Amino acid sequence: MITIDTRGQKPYSPLIPAMLAVCRTPKGEKLEIILNNAAAFNDLKEYLSEQHIGFREIYDGESMTVQFTL
Questions:
Q1: What is the pTM of this model?
Q2: Which of 8, 18, 29, 55 is the most exposed place for a label (fewest CB within 10 A)?
Q3: Strand partners, 66
Q4: What are the pLDDT digits (tens) for 47-67?
């Protein structure tokens, strides 16, 4: 499983490294993206739903994680 931790991304949206990972990860690979930005988390979930990619949401305090297989 590839893990992308976007917590603490200040100058840019945390969606940038998240989407780069989605684009660069080979099909069949598991991906885990950790965020602490609720708007970016919701946008990522919406994108995955639109692409018909099932995902798992994990909430841990201020951190939110999305796990899925491409």
A1: 0.84
A2: 8
A3: 33, 57
A4: 999 999 999 999 999 899 999
